[in-house]
Amino acid sequence: MHPQRREFDVRPDSELLDTVADWHTTARDILTGLREAVRDGRWTSAAGVAGVGLVAAAAATGVLLLIGWAIAAVLSWLAGHVGSGIATVWHQVIHPAIAAPIDAWFAAHAGVFGFDPAVVMWAWLGIGSVLLMTGSLRSPAGVAIFLAWLGWATTTTAIVYTTATAGDALMSAGIAAVAALMLSLGSIIQLPTRTVVHVTSRETQAREEISKQTVALTAARELGDEARIERIHRSMRDQLAVLYPEDKPDGHWRAEMHQYRRESRAEVPLFAGVALVGAVLLIGMTGGHLFPIAVAVLAAVTLAVSTIRPSADETYAAQLHREYEKEQQREADAAVLREAEATLRSVPLDDGGNTDKQ
């Protein structure tokens, strides 16, 4: 934990990175205890701690491999059943009713102008996709794009109607219209909402918040909830800082800078841990392919190196301890100088025997 977190009320910017930094400090404490146990010859204690750590790592690896295998099995089942259902809908409904008439229309008309029918068809579908994704009802430009999308959908429905066989033309056009309506729902539900903005000053908000927290603090004291009381005190200090701002001491700024550094250094073990977990899951899913194994080894080495390194809290605590020792030494030296000065003042000066003889 941050050595001066409670002294200066330092808040983390990221709770996740702050937690990872705390874990790093805890891991370093465990490693320091192991090193001292080995140095003192307490092999049984060291072996017990190391054994628990290895068993926990092996158990976590086994669980992740099992989860990866289960995910692969579920995905395989979905690909077999859901995929076959989607293929059935495509081949029996969408392709004969919509895709085939569109393909036939472009094949019959685009070739007249010397263009590749497939290229023209995919360009037409691409234009429709862009209009669909950018159209909305929240702005004038979005409304214009949405109207263009409706025109595109109407034209495509007309293409389906005119190209499908006489017996299926009405049904194919109906399916195309329903598909266009379903695709349009994403833009239709984005109706513009009236926004009401209440402008209040920061000072007014702070005073209102303090009034609410005062009531909450009374209730928390009646319940004896110390954790809640501490949270309310912190929040009230923040609001009071808004009403009565004051300069922070140098130590506070330095403590906040250390909090920033410890969170920055926590990014490496966090990303390495996430990569390690993901790689182990992929090993379970793929049955041991080389790529996830290589990623897992690299992530494990990175995590181990970042853990073995002294944590930011250790470095900062050592710096504070050195500064404290220097301050103690300066105070001791000052005390010696004051004592020596007092001693010199208490001794009468000697005139060296140079007295006038009468």
Keywords:
mainly alpha; 358 residues; 12 helices
Characterization of this structure:
This protein has a domain at 72-188. 80% of the residues lie in helices and 0% in strands. By secondary structure, the chain is mostly helical. The radius of gyration is 37 Å and the shape is elongated. It has helices spanning 5-8, 15-39, 43-109, 117-134, 140-163, 169-188, 202-223, 226-243, 250-265, 267-286, 290-308, 312-346. The model has no long low-confidence stretch (mean pLDDT 81). α2 (15-39) packs antiparallel against α3 and α3 (43-109) packs across α6. The protein has 12 helices and no strands. The longest helix is centred in the N-terminal third of the chain and has 67 residues, at 43-109.
